[in-house]
Amino acid sequence: MGKLNLIKQHAAYYKANAKPVELEIEPINCLAISGIGAPDGELFQKSIGALYATAYTVKKYGKSDGTDFVVPKLEAFWWVEGGLIFDQTPQNEWHWQLMIRMPEFVTNDHVDQAVEEVIKKKNLVLANEVQLKPINEGRSVQVLHIGSYYQEEPSINKILDYMKLNGLEMNGYHHEIYISDPTKTAEEKLKTIIRYAVKEN
To answer: What's 15's DSSP letter?
Structure first.
């Protein structure tokens, strides 16, 4: 039996183009870890490490049980408190929740066991913050952004214009799905899906 590949199985979730598209996102479960701070800060980077270590340990358990799977793309929710505007808020005040989607058969017991192993064997104490969380965005609008994470405004404006034209308003946080690996891809070629849950205005 081959590996379960959620990226292929749920292709619409991981695909977007330059034109805003409205779609219905199914409820999912994600490994998640939250924090506050700049994306190039130590906490953010260590949180990514703890999240991936936990995800690959859960995958290892699945492989031994005959339910191996491909670890999906990294994602993140971003927000600032009190209705402030991102580009007017210092990065050390940015809130984020890093996420990696998990197959339906992954349980809290799997995650708890993986966290315990990651802390014990890799000494990544931050893994203790990793949890299995349900995410239910529902109706959403998304667009593909190509380029730097710090030059997303034109892509975000495409979504905002679409929402205004179609009588929609935001119903959740700024959501990014990192299609490209920033350690292997030139900044100007980075591909990121930007998504907002929406509702009728």
So the answer is: -
Running along the chain, 201 residues long, what does each successive block of 10 average in pLDDT?
89 96 97 96 97 98 93 97 76 95 96 98 97 98 96 95 96 96 95 97 86
pTM: 0.95
CATH class of the 10-27+137-201 domain in this structure: alpha beta
C-alpha distance from residue 74 to each of 2, 8, 14, 123, 194 (Å)? 22, 15, 11, 22, 13
Domain-by-domain residue ranges, the chain? 10-27+137-201, 29-135
Torsion of CA 187, 172, 35, 186, to 10 degrees: -10
Q: Classify 29-135 by CATH class.
A: alpha beta
The pair of three-digit structure tokens given for residue 31, joined into one six-digit string: 């490994």
